[in-house]
């Protein structure tokens, strides 16, 4: 580790990297503060920008968006009782009541400081745990990697929404789309329909622009204009946080950061789960549980430290195994691979300086997020009230410009538009888009390792049970599926009981 730290700092601390970090943090904060504009949408829109960059500034830019997005959602949650991102919903429970008590600035500062601590804590965990996990990953063969991919596909159940069947349908569609192009083993064309441009497959960034960005425009076009006039001049409190409040925040921030890291490491979970789990834990541990839901500083601190602690943790399985912890991190995988950085031990050996620069950069991202949040809070508050008729054309321009810039042709623009229409139809059918993304990301890796393993074993499926790691991942897969099925059954039972109670009344 030490032999990489010093050269990594030299690669990291450049004017270019500092500039892109701050641009990413600013963009992420603004996007996340506006209800309806998600972090994943922001990363997709600006992903093509990184294609002309080298690995470090490109990742710093995306990590700036990712981390700031975790904090930015709390701005609208506190100000207007509407979370800018799903994982800020727990923050809303105490953030807005505290704002109504005339302590808006204090609520925003608590959210900012807790987010910064959680982000720095997870970055340190990534720095120390990442190389160790990579050493284990180096011992995995094709059969083991196939089991890892299958375990990664269990993420689908966690992002399927209310219906697991619909999630599986979406994932199957994503796996099917990942097959477009040349067969990775035989080079035979699949689903190209005689179109030469499809021989190389579909570019992930272009598909995502349609699946997540254009569809949001279509969805907004169906709704009436929603205007919100927020008077930021009313935010006049001094923002003072007392020593007693800092002491009360200390334990929930630390415990929630640990919870966020543990949740983030597990594929399929995310910031929303971490924030709610931490919020409930903090309430149970608190000496003043009655304040929760009425402006508790502990509630805000717990929720925000947890959802930002997830950011660094999700990068651990991504950088070591190539398994994304959530949809946003899955997109970052393409930013790595376009620079020839394939996840695994090789990243930490042959490209160790770059990897450590990225991991150290995550700490720097959170520091600049804190600085920007401290001095630009009023500006972030104002963006909450930007009207849709201004935002929508800007997003459309970014979508088509991004699609064109990937390869410099109009065919990709058409592909993005087709995927946008497809995603709109899927939304009407209540089929979630995130499983499609996971199918696209993991499809090729799963297929390739499966077929290679069977070639090595001459078609004998026993190879998938031939090592300790295969057995471990098999147990994890069974445990994950069992937990998911049990959770779905509980939800169904609770819904049935609720319905029976309603009918009885």
What does this 3D model show about the protein?
The protein is mainly α and 505 residues long. The protein has one domain. It has 21 helices and two strands. It has a two-stranded antiparallel sheet. It is globular. It starts with a helix and ends with a helix.
In short:
The chain has 505 residues and is mostly helical. The chain has helices at 2-12, 15-33, 39-46, 55-80, 89-100, 104-137, 142-153, 155-158, 164-178, 204-221, 243-265, 271-285, 297-321, 327-337, 345-349, 352-375, 377-382, 388-407, 410-428, 434-456, 468-504; strands at 181-182, 189-190. The chain has one domain.
Which characteristics define this entry?
505 residues; mainly alpha; two-stranded antiparallel ribbon; 21 helices; 73% helix
